[in-house]
Design goal:
The protein has two domains: 43 residues, no CATH class; 152 residues, ABC-type transport auxiliary lipoprotein component (Rossmann fold). It is 39% helix and 23% strand. The protein has a five-stranded mixed beta sheet.
Length: 206
């Protein structure tokens, strides 16, 4: 059997890499005509694909629970500033997905357990201030900036307040499709952001 399916990985790369280069030029505004235009559009499709939202599992850091942890206190979480993902846009972080990832990380850490109501010991407000993503890139680098505030249920004075900025780069060698590479980079930036926040929280809780 002949054709693309029977080609070696090196031979496929010889076809793929020029195609992606054409797609990059196409997305950056270069004009193509005829068959070259069709190839450039195909390359752009390979680079972009259909967007999917950042997933809670991909944003949840794996944290070690202290060996002799005290019984965890409870917290209600409110996340704002997130956005829904459109299939023809870029991967975004929704408020619900970020809240779920954060709640899972807090539970794994053993310092706080998230509750869905206002009877929790603490209230934690998180604002997704900025999500910087490239339009097109081979290594996808994403920066996430968030603002955090924690206060006790019976006191509106915050015991912890901080702005965190984290970056994560997903290399081209790890993921071929650009839109998935962007989602993985977005999840990585969120995962590092949540990991930093949990560490700061554990230091700030009285």
């Amino acid at each position: 059997m002949h054709g693309i399916a029977s080609r070696s990985p090196d031979a496929l790369a010889d076809v793929r890499n020029p195609l992606l280069t054409l797609g990059m030029d196409y997305l950056q505004g270069r004009r193509f005509e005829g068959f070259a235009g069709a190839l450039a559009a195909l390359g752009a499709a390979l680079l972009l694909g259909c967007a999917s939202p950042a997933q809670p599992g991909g944003m949840t850091p794996r944290l070690a629970r202290p060996a002799a942890a005290a019984p965890p206190r409870t917290v209600s979480i409110q996340t704002t500033g997130g956005a829904e993902t459109f299939s023809l846009g870029r991967s975004k972080i929704s408020n619900a997905a970020f809240t779920e990832a954060l709640a899972d990380a807090l539970r794994e850490s053993g310092i706080l357990v998230a509750l869905a109501d206002q009877s929790a010991d603490y209230h934690l407000a998180v604002a997704i201030d900025e999500l910087e993503q490239p339009h097109v890139a081979f290594p996808m680098k994403v920066r996430l900036t968030t603002s955090w505030k924690l206060w006790p249920r019976d006191d509106h004075e915050p015991v912890w307040r901080e702005t965190l900025s984290t970056t994560y780069t997903e290399p081209f060698a790890e993921e071929f499709f650009g839109i998935k590479r962007l989602r993985l980079a977005t999840e990585g930036a969120a995962r590092q952001n949540i990991e930093q926040a949990v560490a700061r929280l554990s230091e700030s809780l009285p």
